[in-house]
Structure formats: C-alpha cells, structure tokens
C-alpha cells in the first residue's frame, strides 16, 4: 500500500502538519502522566484501526517503561486488573470520546465524573485534547492510507 499524500511535500500540507504535530509535542509536557498518555493514544488508535499509531504508541510506551503485559491488555482493559483506577478512568473517557457516534451523547456524565475523581482540571484538559488529537491523527493516517511498516523507533518524531 502506498500513501495517498505526503504531508511534507507541499507548502500547505507541510506547514499544517508541522503545526499540528506541535500540538502533540506540547501534550508531552503536560501534567498528565506520560504512560497514561501512551495508553490512551494506543487505545484510541486501536479503536480507529490506525496501525501507524498503534505501532508508534506501543513502542513509545515500552521505551517509557511500560510492561508488555499491560500493553497487551490495553484492548481488553475493562477485564484486566493491571490498570490503576486513574488509568481505567482515562481509558474509559478515551473510548467514549472516540466512539461519539456510537454513544449518542458523547462522553457521559458518569464517565466524566469518574475521570474528574482522578485528574485535576489541567490533567483533564490534556486528556481531552489528547483524545481529540489522536482521533484527528488516526483519521489523517487512515484517509491517506499511510502505510505501517512496523519500523517506528521511539523518539523518531521528537
């Protein structure tokens, strides 16, 4: 499979892609724990079927110290007992925030309240932006058929 577009080939795409990716980098410096960010990014990407992002965030999480057991269980986090209450709240918010068309009302009050028990406003802001950002990146990759060769190296994109 060949990509339909090269995001860095033309001036419009290049400028927009660089600014867009700067949003992702700014989230890395937020108060939301780094491994939680990777778990959320991975789960959103699994739901959306974005192989490029699944590859990237699995490897980034592993490089950050995440265990293979927990990475393998992200897709089944509801049944797994290896995640903290805070991580479970973040994953639940990420799922409802990703499946907005399926959840006829978006993120429920119960899911929001559960997340708010574990995260302060700054962290919730980062979590919401991360879920939105990952959904956007997934869609860009899927629409343009960005191929996943499995060759992502942690830190490749700064």
TrEMBL record:
Residues 16-96 form the Carboxymuconolactone decarboxylase-like domain. It holds the Pfam family CMD. SUPFAM superfamilies: AhpD-like (SSF69118). Coiled coil: none annotated. NCBIfam families: ahpD_dom (TIGR00778). PANTHER family: 4-CARBOXYMUCONOLACTONE DECARBOXYLASE FAMILY PROTEIN (AFU_ORTHOLOGUE AFUA_6G11590), BLL7811 PROTEIN. This is Carboxymuconolactone decarboxylase family protein. It comes from Streptomyces hokutonensis.
